[in-house]
């Protein structure tokens, strides 16, 4: 049976650095027989979290459902049914994009946090899927990992989605020109990451 790989693209620009890198990962997964689907957050209707905590206060092992009616539930159901997830975002103002952050905040129902409890506890005991994380930045990739919150935000999002991170692709020096071309080496690495997910 074919593996299912879902990608979440948190970039505002289609066809550019993050989108191209994510597509190369999906291409690698498809080469190994996986079925893939890419979701652009800019095309989805995702409301801001209202911090009502109805979803996180729902007891039980299953993710609490948000009371808001938008596209989030369908996206989360698709990820939950998948075998692997790719999460991608450029670094904007020192972290993932605002649209990716909005998506993350709405996943609070993956934890159990009733009123009166000091901090949330995890509903998911063991990861059930694989994750690959992709970020790009104007600074060198090593500096991006150390001096921005993007890597930890993407790792947290993967954990909230019940996924274990098995590969990362940090792309540095991506702002030298309007249309940053990924090197053949980076694209080959991205495809190899896709093989791991399939």
Give the tags:
globular; two-stranded antiparallel ribbon; five-stranded parallel beta sheet; 198 residues; 7 helices; Rossmann fold
Describe what you observe in this structure.
There is one protein chain. The longest helix is centred in the N-terminal third of the chain and has 15 residues, at 17-31. The chain has 7 helices and 7 strands, in the order E-H-E-H-H-E-H-E-E-E-H-H-E-H. It has a single domain (4-197), classed as Rossmann fold (3-Layer(aba) Sandwich). Helix 1 packs across helix 7. The mean pLDDT is 92. The protein is of the alpha/beta class and 198 residues long. It is globular.
Q: What's the SSE pattern?
A: EHEHHEHEEEHHEH
Shape: globular
Sheet-strand content, in percent, reads 15-25%
Q: In terms of structural class, how would the helical and strand content be classed? A: alpha/beta
* CATH-derived topology: Rossmann fold
- What is the rounded distance between the termini? 11 Å
The low-pLDDT segments are none
Describe the secondary-structure layout.
Layout: E1 4-9, H1 17-31, E2 35-40, H2 54-57, H3 72-81, E3 84-90, H4 98-105, E4 111-112, E5 121-122, E6 129-136, H5 141-147, H6 150-160, E7 163-171, H7 184-197
Parallel strand pairs: 1-2, 1-3, 3-6, 6-7
Antiparallel strand pairs: 4-5
Helix pairs in contact: 1-7
Quick synopsis:
The chain has helices at residues 17-31, 54-57, 72-81, 98-105, 141-147, 150-160, 184-197, and strands at residues 4-9, 35-40, 84-90, 111-112, 121-122, 129-136, 163-171.
């Amino acid at each position: 049976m074919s593996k299912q790989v879902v990608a979440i693209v948190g970039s505002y620009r289609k066809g550019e650095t993050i989108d191209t890198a994510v597509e190369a990962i999906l291409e690698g997964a498809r080469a190994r027989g996986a079925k893939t689907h890419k979701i652009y957050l800019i095309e989805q209707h995702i409301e801001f979290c209202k911090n009502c905590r109805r979803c996180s206060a729902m007891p039980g092992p299953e993710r609490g459902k948000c009371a808001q009616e938008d596209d989030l539930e369908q996206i989360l159901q698709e990820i939950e049914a998948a075998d692997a997830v790719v999460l991608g975002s450029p670094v904007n103002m020192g972290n993932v994009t605002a649209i990716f952050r909005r998506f993350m905040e709405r996943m609070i129902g993956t934890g159990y946090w009733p009123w009166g409890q000091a901090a949330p506890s995890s509903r998911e005991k063991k990861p059930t899927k694989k994750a690959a994380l992709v970020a790009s930045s104007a600074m060198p990739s090593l500096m991006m990992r150390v001096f921005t919150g993007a890597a930890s935000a993407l790792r947290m999002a993967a954990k909230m989605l019940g996924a274990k991170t098995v590969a990362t692709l940090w792309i540095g020096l991506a702002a030298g020109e309007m249309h940053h071309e990924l090197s053949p080496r980076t694209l080959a690495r991205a495809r190899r990451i896709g093989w791991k997910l399939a």
